[in-house]
Structures are given as C-alpha cells and as structure tokens.
Write a structure and sequence with these properties.
Largest sheet of chain B: 2 strands, antiparallel
Number of strands of chain B: 4
Distance between the termini of chain A: 67 Å
Radius of gyration of chain A: 31 Å
CATH topology of chain B: ABC transporter involved in vitamin B12 uptake, BtuC
Strand content of chain A: 5-15%
Oligomer: heterodimer
Strand content of chain B: under 5%
Shape of chain B: globular
Helix content of chain B: over 70%
Helix content of chain A: 40-55%
Number of helices of chain A: 27
CATH class of chain B: Mainly Alpha
CATH architecture of chain B: Orthogonal Bundle
Chain lengths: 664, 309
C-alpha cells in the first residue's frame, strides 16, 4: 500500500519539537535549582568553571563537528577573548590623558586619574557586558584573518596551521610585555557589574551567568544545525566536492564555521577571565586545546547534547571527581597499609586519561558516546517487500517554468584538457538542444567523465568554451555553475552519507534558499516559510521515485541499498532544479527491472522539459532512449548522430571492437 | 668578533642543529609519504628516545657528572648507545602502528590524526610516570674539544654527531634507492593498491616505514641529549613541531627535501636567535610553517608528491 504524497507531507509537518522543548525546560529548572539546593560553594564554583568549558566545547563542535575542520589550536581564541577583556579591565595600560578618551569617560568606561606633579592618566575599566560582545567579535575577526588564507587547504594541513596559531598566541602573550605583562600575566581584572551589583568573588553569580550563556549557545547550535547553514556545513564535512556540486560555496561556509567557533571561544575567554580575575599565557597552551577536543570527541562530533554532557564530565573530572577519587584511594591505602596508594595523586594522570580517551574513542566508537546520527527503526519486512510503485500523476511544480532562450541550451566548442601528455579531452565540440536526451558513450578511459567534470567546473579546462544558453560557464567555480542550472550525478556515488535522505535533498536546495546565519538563529517567519517550502519541494522530487525513497526519509544515506543510493543522487541533482542534468552511469549496478524503472524516470524528466546528458555502458538501452549519441575515444569525439547513424559508423565499431586486420 | 664571524659561527651551529631536525623530519615525511598521515606520536617517540638513550648511558655506568671519553671507548659507547636507542624507538614505532594505527587504516577524515594525538599524550605521561617530571642531566661522554676556523669554533661534538647523521642519511638513501625493499617502499608511496597487486606486502612496508622513521627519531633524540645536555618529558612538542616544519619546508613526502628542510630550520633557529631575540624564534618558525602551507604547500622545492584520493 502506498501512502500519498499528502500523507507524507502531513507526517513531516507533525514532527514533534515539543518533546525537546520540554526536556530543555526541565533541565534548565534543575540546573537553576542546583546551587540553591546544594549550598556547597566549592561545587557551585566547579560548575561555573565547567560551564566555561561547555561553551568552548560547543564552539569547537561547530568547527570540528559540524563543518569537519580539525582545529588543534582552539585555545588560541579562548586566549584572545580572555586577554581582550583582561587588558581593558585591569591596570596594565595607563595611557596619558588626552581628549580622545572623553567619549569613553562619558560612557563610564574609563576614569581620569589625577596625580600631583605628573600628567593625568587614564584608567581603563570597560564594561564586562560590552566586552562580552566585543571579545566575541574580535575573536571572529581573528578567525576570519587566519581562516581566509588557510581554509582552502586539505584537512590535515589545516590542522597543522591551527596548531601553529595555537602555539604563536601564547608566545606572543608571553613576550609582548607592555600589553600583556608577559609571563606573570594580568591580575586584578575587574569583575562584572550589573545595575550596581558587583559579581565579586562568590561563585553563584558566575554560575547563573555561565548557565545563561551555555543555554544561549546550545540554542544557537541547535538552530544552526537544523538550518540551511548547518546542512551546508555537514555537506562539506561529508563530501566537499559533492557539496560544491550542489551549489555550496565551501570557502564561505568554512569561514563562517571557523569565525562562529572563534566567537564562542571568545565568549568563554571573557567569562573565564572575569571570574578568575587573572590571565596568564600558561592558561591557553596546547593541552587546553586538546582537552576541548577530547570533550568533543567523547561526546560525539556534531552531537550537541553529547558535547555538553562530555564537557561537563571532563571539566568536573578535572576539578572534582579526580580529587575525590584520590581521597578515597588514599584512605584505602591507609586502611590496607599500602604506601603507594597513600601517595597516589590521580589528578596528575589527567592527560593520560585524555590520551586514552582519544585513542579508545577513535578505535572503538568514532561517533562518540552520544552519536549525532539518530537511530531510526528499520523498515518492517512488509514495508521492504512492498512492490515498487510509481504514481504516474506525480508532477514537478516547477517543470517548464524556466523561460526558453533561443538557441542551443549547451554549446561546447574546442574543449581541451590534457593531463601531462595524455589528452583526456581534445577539441570536443558538442551542441545540445533544449529538451534533448543526448548520450555520451565510448570505451573505458575515453574521457566521458572528464567531459562532465569539465562542464561542471570540477577540473579546470586548458582551452575551449562551454556556454549555457549563450553564456560562458567554463572557468566558474562548481557551486556557481550549479546555480546557472547544471546539475550532475557521480559515477562513484557521492552522497552525504551521515545525512538523512531528506537532508541530502535539502542540501541541493541550498542555492535557492536565502537564510544566513542570523536567519537560521532567529528564524523569522520568512525563514520558517522558506524551510517549509524546501521540505515540500524535496518531498515532491522524492515522490518521483514512488515508494522507493519516501518511506526512508529519515534514514541516513549510508544505509540505503545501492540502487536507492543511485536514485537519491538523481533526486538530489533534480532538487537543484537544473535545466541540464548530467547523469554519469545512473544504472550501473542495477538489475534489468530497476534499469527499466530508471529509464522510465529519465524519459519522464524529458517530458518535464529537463535536458539530459547521459553517460552509459548499456548500449541497448542507450539506443532505445537517446535522441542523439556522441561517441568519445581517447578524448576525441569520433562520431555523433542518431542511434541508427552511430550504430553503423565504422569508427565507432572500430573503437569498440578493434580494427580488422587489413587484407590486401 | 666581527659580524661576519658571528654569522659563520651561527651557520656552523645551525647546520649541527639542522641535522637533528632532519633526522626527525624524515620520520614525518616517510610516514606521510606512505599513508598520508601526520603522525603526532612522532613528537613523543622522539622525546621517549632521549630517555632510552639516557637509561642506556646510565646502565653503561655514565651519569651526569661522568668524565668524557676519548678514542676507541668513545666511539664504541656512541655506537652502542645509538644502536640501542634506535632499536628501542624503532620498536616503539612498530608497537604504535600495530596497536593504534593499523585498525584505522582506510578510515578517512581526521580520525587517524586524532588517534596519534592521543598516543602522543599517553607516551608523555608514561614517561612522566617512569622517569619523573624533573629535568635530567644527559651524560656528556663526548670531550669538549674545539677547533677554530677563522673566528668560528667547531666542536668535536658537532663533528662526531654530524658524521653520525651523515652516515645514517647515506644508509637510508642506499636502502630507499638501491634495494628491493626500498623500491617496494617507493611503490607503496605512489599507490598502495597497485603495489599490493604487484606482490608488495604493504603491511610489512608500513611497519618498516614506522620502524625506520622512529629509529631515525631515536638518533635525533640522542643529538638533542648531547647538544643540550639535558632531557625532560616536555621537550618533544616544540622540537617536533620544528621538525615537522622542516618536513613541510622540503615538501612533505619528499625524503631529500626533509633533510634540506631540517638544515634550513636549524639555520633559521640559530640565525634568528642571533639576529632577533631567542624568545621570538618559535613565532618565526611557525610563521614560516603557516606561510608555507598557505602559499606553497608543495614545499620550497616544489616537487609534487603523489596524492592519493
């Protein structure tokens, strides 16, 4: 039995968010009640410090977990935020008074100190609240400064660059003495004040401040994760090239992730220094970066709840659990008279524990203790055994809406690409009319996929032009070419494996959606409407495949069968609303019945007005469906024409079967 | 001393230091060449090596206050210490590969790199537990003999260690370029699958690579011990990162490049320390690293190493 499209729509609309909101309220109430019930100031203090680490871990989670960028110097941003506040809220700088400071004086951010017999001086005491915002902005700026030149690097190189940055910042802090007071660090940092109330040195106000910031960042993280921005990040993490082919500008989104992570690190830094009232270079060394990484790895990269739980655990392990455990072990040592146990200091094995966590998690549970990918119930036997059906009435609402410009849709002229001495494409000319289905065939290694890669901009061409509707598209970045209306599938399927079926298709709608980071976080009505529309559009595309993909909406792509993976890739390409669809061996690995089903679908696409170029090896099928066929051999187009013409072409036969020995 | 003499002196010192970085950089570059992994555990293998060397010397009856040796006993002791330390670090490298990295083979993304960071932390803390946190003096078995060339001084230590380093580099060159095993290594670096099809036992080659790289790090750790006359659990990180910069400088994956990169970083350190202030040395070196990766990721010599998808 097949559910109708409308039934699926209503099911998606009812997806309950309420349960999560309920959890949030309960947890928040418990957290707020904790220091009031448990009057132990030491515990409150430990929790307040732990909140700082939760902030940091959530920030790193955006970088490492969402966008998949390994940042090994994250503590550098923590340091920048901390010093940003400490410098302007301590006695380190005492510039001479000049009228430049007047506006700050009026705002109450500085004081004028009059000393007899000396020029007047300025004492800085910038507001904590202003610096909380400003510190985050400064860190985001640092993130952009370091990210912009480095984010195009391969993942492992990026890790090293961030490691270098993480090394440089404490060295600068140690050596730039007039600003940072060197190795002694800055002391006497002003504590926050709110409406005349001084936070002072008691932990309780910091506990609530930390809780508020953590709540805010958790909220922001969830909002981002479930938005166009978050999907783009995860698409980049899963497969950068496929993300580009879906129209995601990976440099832009990596930079966004990097700077948002940095900004949250900055928040943590300002809060930490305000609570501690000192900042020294040693607080931000490599082990701190690793500790934050341990939190993210332990909880599960990309899993917000996992990261929060793990960060709390690790922070408290350091400040409470290990101390208490040490006391127990030493008591045990005294009881059984073991001298070694009496002297044990477990806190010194903290880094050993970190090392073990990293190694063990990577070896045995890479997805973390609380994986980001939700488990969904497998389909029942009946659901799996159900006959494939396709509703012939399914339509694409946007089909045929594009205005037809006169002339050929795609015009390739003299396209050439050489790898060393090998010409993968040699002066290829090809015209594709609107609404045509053109097949590209040729023996293995004849340059078919290279042709697709050249059209979609994945590899740069040496010479020649590719024009879409008369406009040059060669030389554009892959994500720009998608937005012009060219979509593709890959020969070796490149899905976003850890995203669900629905999310895979939603990523493809990326270029048509508007929401940026702010829209994702505040979710104004415009963005809500846009998201609803996006899900609707995705369902529409998926409905083309009948009951193949719709029942599996919430399943991660890695769990799909081979044929369904191919189908999902086509659905994903269709969701970009292409004028021209490039299918690279879409029926590879499918059985004859599945092949027929897919051919039927491709014909349907033609009826919707989508132009298709098809690479295939199944020649009987090619002859059947194609309007025209182009034959490549060794990067050269050796024939082009209707199936009948190509079938009888001498050179084609030669290319496939070899040359008959010349008889004289 | 004229400025030129100071420069000359710093070049001599820099080349001597550079030999140490070169030996360390080789381990990074060889492993990266074969399995495309930045091996952070290499930092700690190097650091552990200094303690293996120290313990070996102690077992031979030398302590921080021992008198220097001369003649045959000196050469014999050095050969023995080098052999034992290199064997020990080499075995350590094999254990790391076998236990922690082989199960990660074929896992894409950041996971293998994170594993090596974990291994590095574990090693540092094991060393802390076994040898303690205090800085330990390294026995100075090499006599303090100096020769002057112009105004610059060359020490016997620099000559002996330089000779040892050169010998090791030549041996490595012979192994990689002239033996069947070396050919198998180079083939594996080009394409693991193809090498496997041609009958290369890839597991064995990877084990061998880790052994050689770690053994060279062991040699490098003795350089550290003899030059600086001390060791401690924390020395691996900075030195390792400088050595890694050397490997990148020469084009990571490129064996001769790593040696040249090491020498260059040695020179940068000694000249930078002379011309600027020592405390900024690391900022200079890491800035070089970042600038290189950004602008010239193939290294100074621009030789593209094979990229595997």
């Amino acid at each position: 039995m097949m559910r109708t499209l409308d039934a699926w729509r209503s099911k998606m609309a009812l997806r309950p968010q309420q349960r999560r909101q309920l959890w949030a309220v309960v947890l928040l109430a418990l957290a707020a009640a904790f220091p009031l019930v448990d009057q132990n100031a030491a515990n409150t203090d430990a929790m307040a410090n732990a909140f700082v680490y939760v902030l940091l871990a959530l920030g790193l989670n955006i970088v490492v977990g969402f966008a998949g960028l390994l940042d090994l110097g994250y503590a550098a941003f923590f340091a920048v935020g901390a010093y940003a506040y400490a410098i302007v809220a301590s006695f380190q700088l005492k510039p001479e008074w000049s009228d430049v400071w007047l506006p700050f004086l009026w705002l109450g951010q500085v004081s004028r100190i009059q000393l007899p017999g000396q020029p007047d001086m300025v004492q800085l005491h910038f507001s904590f609240w202003a610096m909380l915002v400003l510190g985050a902005i400064i860190c985001a700026a640092f993130g952009i400064m370091f990210g912009a030149p480095t984010l195009h690097l391969r993942g492992d190189y990026l890790a090293i660059v961030t490691l270098g940055f993480g090394e440089i910042v404490p060295v600068v802090a140690r050596n730039w003495e007039w600003l940072t007071n060197g190795a002694q660090g800055l002391g006497g940092v002003r504590t926050p004040r709110l409406f005349g109330f001084n936070f002072g040195f008691a932990p309780l106000p910091y506990y609530f401040l930390g809780l508020a910031l953590v709540t805010l960042v958790i909220f922001v993280s969830y909002r981002l994760q479930e938005s166009r921005v978050g999907r783009a990040w995860m698409a980049i993490r899963e497969d950068e090239m496929a993300a580009g082919a879906m129209g995601v500008n990976h440099i832009h989104y990596k930079l966004l992730a990097f700077s948002m992570g940095a900004a949250i690190g900055g928040l943590g830094g300002v809060l930490y220094v305000a609570k501690l009232t000192t900042a020294t270079p040693d607080m931000f060394q490599f082990p701190v970066s690793v500790m934050i990484l341990v939190m993210v790895v332990l909880g599960g990269m990309g899993s917000i709840r996992g990261v929060v739980v793990a960060a709390l655990f690790i922070a408290l392990l350091q400040s409470v659990f290990l101390q208490e455990l040490t006391a127990y072990v030493q008591t045990l040592g005294r009881l059984i008279g073991n001298a070694y146990l009496q002297k044990v200091q477990l806190i010194s094995s903290l880094e050993l524990i970190f090392g073990c966590i990293l190694v063990l998690m990577m070896l045995y549970r890479r997805e973390g203790l609380f994986p980001a990918v939700r488990r969904v119930a497998a389909l029942t036997r009946e659901q799996q055994a159900v006959l494939p059906t396709r509703d012939a009435t399914v339509q694409l609402s946007w089909a045929g809406t594009t205005t037809a410009a006169p002339g050929a849709l795609l015009h390739i002229a003299g396209l050439t690409k050489r790898f060393g001495g090998v010409a993968a494409a040699e002066a290829i000319d090809l015209m594709v009319e609107r609404g045509e289905l053109v097949s590209v065939i040729g023996p293995n290694g004849s340059g078919k996929t290279t042709l697709f890669n050249l059209i979609t901009g994945l590899i740069p061409h040496d010479s020649g032009t590719v024009r879409l509707e008369g406009q040059e598209i060669s030389g554009l970045a892959p994500h720009a070419i998608v937005t012009r209306g060219v979509a593709r599938t890959f020969q070796n399927i490149r899905l976003f494996n850890n995203l669900t079926v629905l999310e895979n298709v939603l990523v493809a709608e990326h270029p048509r959606l508007q929401a940026g980071a702010a829209g994702a976080i505040f979710r104004p009505p415009r963005v809500c409407a846009e998201e609803r529309q996006a899900v609707d559009n995705a369902l529409e595309v998926l409905a083309l495949f009948g009951n193949r993909l719709l029942p599996r909406l919430e399943h991660p792509a890695y769990g799909l069968s081979y044929a369904n993976r191919r189908r999902l890739e086509i659905a994903r390409a269709l969701a970009t609303r292409p004028k021209l669809l490039l299918l690279d061996e879409p029926t590879a690995g499918m059985n004859p019945a599945e092949t027929l089903e897919l051919i039927d679908l491709v014909r349907g696409l033609q009826a919707f007005g989508i132009t298709v170029i098809l690479i295939e090896h199944k020649l009987d099928m090619i002859m059947d469906v194609s309007d025209r066929i182009a034959v490549l051999d060794h990067g050269v187009k050796i024939a082009e024409g209707t199936p009948a013409q190509v079938r009888n072409n001498e050179r084609v036969i030669e290319a496939y079967l070899g040359r008959r020995r010349q008889t004289r | 001393m004229s400025f030129f003499d100071i420069l000359l002196q710093q070049i001599v010192n820099g080349l001597a230091l550079g030999m140490m970085y070169a030996l360390l950089a080789l381990g990074f570059t060889m492993v990266y060449g074969i399995i495309e992994l930045i091996n952070f555990a290499h930092f700690s293998v190097f650091m552990t090596g200094t303690f293996f060397g120290l313990t070996t010397l102690n077992l031979l009856g030398f302590s921080g206050s021992s008198k220097a040796l001369t003649g045959l006993p000196l050469v014999g002791t050095l050969v023995l210490v080098f052999a034992v330390t290199m064997l020990a670090t080499g075995l350590l490298g094999i254990i790391i590969e076998r236990l922690c990295l082989r199960p990660m083979r074929g896992v894409s993304g950041t996971a293998p790199m994170i594993t090596t960071i974990g291994v590095a932390f574990i090693l540092v803390n094991v060393v802390l537990m076994v040898w303690g946190p205090q800085t330990q003096p390294f026995p100075g078995v090499i006599p303090d003999q100096r020769w002057t060339i112009g105004q610059a001084e060359v020490t016997l230590k620099q000559l002996l260690l330089g000779a040892a380093g050169l010998l090791l580099l030549l041996a490595l060159h012979y192994l990689v370029r002239r033996t069947a095993l070396g050919k198998a290594m180079r083939a594996t670096a080009q394409d693991v699958d193809a090498a496997q099809m041609m009958g290369v036992d890839v597991d064995r080659i990877i084990i061998l690579t880790f052994f050689l790289g770690s053994a060279l790090a062991g040699a490098g750790s003795l350089f550290f011990g003899f030059y600086y006359g001390f060791t401690a659990f924390y020395i691996g990180y900075t030195t390792g990162l400088r050595a890694f910069t050397s490997a990148v400088l020469g084009g990571i994956g490129n064996i001769p490049g790593a040696v040249l990169g090491g020498l260059l970083i040695g020179l940068t350190q000694s000249l930078g320390g002379q011309l600027l202030q020592v405390r900024w040395t690391d900022v200079i070196i890491f800035s070089i690293l970042i600038a290189l990766l950004v602008f010239r990721p193939t290294g100074l010599f621009g030789i593209q190493t094979p990229q595997k998808a």
